[in-house]
Amino acid sequence: MNSTPNFSGEDLSSRESVPTATSRMDHPPGSNPPGLKTIAEREAALLAPWAFPSSATKGRRHSEPVHPYRGPFQRDRDRVLHSAGFRRLSGKMQVFTGDMGDYHRTRLTHTVEVASIARTLGRALGLNEDLIEALALLHDIGHPPFGHAGEDAIHAYLLGDGGFSHNQYALTLVEELEERYATFPGLNLSKEVLASQTTRVDKSAVGRPPILEAQLVDASDSVTYNSHDVDDAVKLGLIEFDALLELPLVKRAAGRVEQGLSPKRRRAAVVYQLIRMQVDSVLHTTMDQIKSAGWTDWTQPLDANFRIDLDPEMANEKAELQSFLYDKVYRHPQIVKVRKRAQDQIHEMLDFFKTNPTKMPERFQVRAESVGIVRSAADYIAGMTDRYCQQRYAELIGK
Ligand code: MG
Q: What gap in Å lies between CA 340 and CA 348, rounded to an integer?
């Protein structure tokens, strides 16, 4: 028989107190079903003092009853996971398009890798994993079709009208466009999740840093994409593995790998080491700082303007890898060709909807009355998967 352990490992399967649809009715909203630890009890046992506790949340814009056994950030994670925008990440490219093969990362698998690495780090640092996972699953939900090429194309078109960024569009999606609830638009996520996403919109803005959980997701995003873009680009033949060995970070990673492996296994082993080295660096650098500062609550690292990062030497080496990827991969002729095609198609579609708004779904025609036709058309296109965007382009413009 399957057991149902609670956080202390205790088997609850034989107890009447395991929550059911009926027992949920038997205790007041916000209280915990008898026999289960409360969210506060679990967090008190598991989280470090510098973690953001669920009890500190400022709640949601539209107030809702507290869930009997899911914490606020667990609910946020679930809301993102069940959203249409999240599902569509499976059809959105990260760097490489679907017609280049089926090995490389999509926007969805990238997101899941970020969540996994961020949770590993978050658990090791005693941070709030539910909040981390909610933020990680959310972080790229606003990406339009065709990756950064699509984003740049929409931004260029809307330049005189406030521009476009995937980070801002993520907020539009989860606050306005998602339709899941009867009485309010959007997903009604916790204010901390929205605030953390807001800090991603303008990363150059100075001021109080975001909460540690949000910083950790950003650091994990960067570790993840640098490492998996190396893997994907070599696999796709856009760069030679040996050319990467010129980079100190890759050279160091390769030096930790045993000799005599096949090229495929060597690539996998080096990518593993790249991730491992960077995760270790973030972990130790952060932990050293936490220990020496002796922080006793989640506000203190923010007051101290603490920023989660790699150690300085590895941060420099990673910057070199990043600029190599930019020059040799993100600006590779094959990728530039994709960029150009995406840009042309998106601009033609924006032109088309501007003069043919009735070709958009009704909700975007209605939305055009409040935000303008160009913005509404951009919001419509940005929600599309790569394949659907191409399909609509073929139907409407027919090239
Ligand atoms: Mg990302």
A: 12
Residue type, 171: L
Using the mean position of ligand 1's atoms as its centre, give its distance from the Cα of residue 72 in Å.
23
- Contact, 61 vs 188, CB < 8 A? yes
The Cα–Cα gap between 229 and 370 comes to: 40
The pair of structure tokens assigned to 93 is 């490219």
What spacing in Å lies between the alpha carbon of 21 and ligand 1's midpoint?
Answer: 37
The alpha carbon of 94 and the centre of ligand 1 are apart by a number of angstroms equal to: 8
> Measured in angstroms, how far is the CA atom of residue 207 from the centroid of ligand 1?
23
Would you tell me which CATH number, out of the four given (1.10.3210.10, 3.20.20.70, 3.10.450.750, 1.20.1420.30), belongs to the domain 69-335?
Answer: 1.10.3210.10
Biggest CA pair distance of the chain:
65
| C-alpha of residue 139 to centroid of ligand 1, in Å | 6
Q: pLDDT tens digits for the chain (399 residues)? A: 333 333 333 333 333 333 333 334 444 555 666 777 889 999 999 999 999 999 999 999 999 999 988 999 999 999 999 999 999 999 998 888 777 788 888 999 999 999 999 999 999 999 999 999 999 999 999 999 999 999 999 999 999 999 999 999 999 999 999 999 999 999 999 999 999 999 988 877 778 899 999 999 999 999 999 999 999 899 889 999 999 999 999 999 999 999 999 999 999 999 999 999 999 999 999 999 999 999 999 999 999 999 999 999 999 999 999 999 999 988 999 889 988 999 999 999 999 999 999 999 999 999 999 999 999 999 999 999 999 999 999 999 986
143 in Cβ contact with 107 (< 8 Å): yes
Distance 273 CA to ligand 1 centre (A): 20
241 Cα–ligand 1 center, Å: 24
Q: How many angstroms does the Cα of residue 122 sit away from the middle of ligand 1?
A: 17
- Around ion ligand 1, residues with a beta carbon closer than 5 Å are 140, 221
In the chain, DSSP assigns E strands to none
Question: Is the full-model pTM beyond 0.85?
Answer: yes
Give the length of the chain: 399
